[in-house]
């Protein structure tokens, strides 16, 4: 139990044989003081607003900072131990989602939120460029002419073609782990290619980093750090990662470790008695992609114009892993575009409808196309109806 006695009182009690517990003076490190001060800011916000800080994109920037900081504190054992005695309101005991980059400090968090700040000695935020952003600006300024750009120019041209035909797509940049050798990004309106990546190192703060050689599509390059590219992508509202092309084991009997099923490509034959279908039943196939079970997709086929208002037979299916179903379906339809079935049928109300997913293609050619999708060579082929085979597109 702590005491409120003066030094004279302590001396008197000592003479009476009573031991007095001295109040311990706790010496904290600067880091611990910062953690406590940051937590007290959150407590003050909760006291003034009667609720936890939120991540609302149109909310106050400080509230968003407090929300991210609280999530980090909940996941940091050191902070949980340090703040237990301060957490009378139980702020640290609530469940919260993990932040996507738990290595960001407050400057980087604010920079990611679009605010240029520098922390002053008395914890005031001033609207000036932070050291983080100055470093990012220096990285951009240090770009130089890429002497061997002729070697990389065809890669950028190929990536653009694959973006145009749907083999690749762009996605918002999210995690530093996405930065790897051989990957493409869009930053500040330019395509960036990570041509080289040095060995991983640890910063003074214990964070991973690596030196990169980054080639840009304007013929320049930069010898920048991985965290610098990460900051540039986070700061850029239009910063994107360009996905890999549709190559590799896209279709298999079982997914590889880490894969997730996203759909099924199916091949159907129609039981329609339409003269064109009846005469070519073994060649007329519908090729589609579904995220539902195939049986659910074809339920009630006789009532749907897309199924030729008739029952259908499933003749082949292939599981789809980690692929944009719609874009892959469009790619397949372009490959077989020359053999698209030109047929018009009336719907339930007698209105003429022209289905677009039926093709005059042998099943073995569809199997061959799937194999070429698997090995990534499909973009070099198109279907030739005259020879009923896949041929190099230059020969068509």
From TrEMBL:
Pfam families: MUG113. InterPro entries: Phage_T5_Orf172_DNA-bd. It comes from the Bacteria. Residues 279-373 form the Bacteriophage T5 Orf172 DNA-binding domain. This is Bacteriophage T5 Orf172 DNA-binding domain-containing protein. The lineage of its organism: Bacteria, Pseudomonadati, Pseudomonadota, Alphaproteobacteria, Rhodobacterales.
């Amino acid at each position: 139990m702590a005491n409120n006695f003066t030094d004279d009182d302590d001396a008197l009690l000592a003479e009476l044989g009573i031991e007095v517990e001295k109040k311990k003076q706790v010496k904290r490190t600067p880091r611990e003081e910062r953690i406590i001060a940051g937590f007290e800011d959150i407590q003050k916000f909760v006291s003034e607003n009667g609720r936890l800080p939120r991540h609302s994109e149109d909310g106050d920037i400080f509230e968003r900072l407090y929300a991210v900081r609280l999530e980090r504190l909940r996941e940091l054992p050191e902070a949980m131990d340090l703040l237990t005695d301060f957490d009378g309101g139980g702020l640290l005991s609530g469940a919260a989602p993990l932040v996507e980059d738990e290595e960001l400090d407050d400057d980087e968090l604010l920079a990611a939120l679009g605010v240029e700040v520098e922390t002053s000695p008395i914890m005031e935020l001033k609207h000036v460029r932070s050291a983080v952003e100055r470093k990012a600006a220096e990285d951009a300024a240090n770009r130089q002419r890429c002497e061997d750009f002729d070697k990389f120019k065809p890669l950028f041209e190929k990536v653009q073609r694959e973006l145009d035909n749907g083999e690749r797509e762009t996605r918002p940049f999210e995690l530093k782990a996405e930065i790897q050798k051989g990957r493409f990004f869009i930053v500040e309106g330019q395509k960036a290619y990570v041509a080289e990546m040095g060995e991983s190192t640890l910063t003074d703060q214990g964070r991973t980093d690596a030196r990169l050689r980054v080639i840009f599509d304007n013929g320049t390059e930069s010898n920048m750090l991985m965290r610098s590219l990460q900051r540039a992508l986070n700061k850029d509202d239009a910063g994107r990662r360009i996905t890999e092309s549709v190559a590799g084991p896209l279709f298999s009997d079982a997914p590889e470790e880490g894969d997730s099923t996203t759909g099924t490509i199916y091949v159907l034959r129609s039981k329609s008695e339409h003269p064109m279908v009846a005469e070519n039943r073994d060649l007329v196939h519908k090729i589609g992609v579904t995220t539902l079970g195939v049986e659910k997709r074809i339920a009630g086929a006789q009532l749907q114009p897309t199924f030729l208002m008739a029952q259908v037979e499933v003749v082949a299916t292939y599981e789809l892993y980690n692929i944009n179903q719609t874009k892959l379906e469009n790619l397949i339809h372009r490959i077989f575009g020359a053999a698209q079935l030109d047929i018009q049928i009336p719907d339930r109300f007698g209105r003429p409808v022209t289905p677009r997913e039926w093709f005059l293609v042998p099943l073995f050619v569809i199997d061959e196309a799937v194999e070429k999708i698997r090995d990534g060579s499909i973009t070099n082929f198109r279907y030739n109806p005259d020879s009923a085979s896949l041929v190099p597109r230059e020969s068509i």
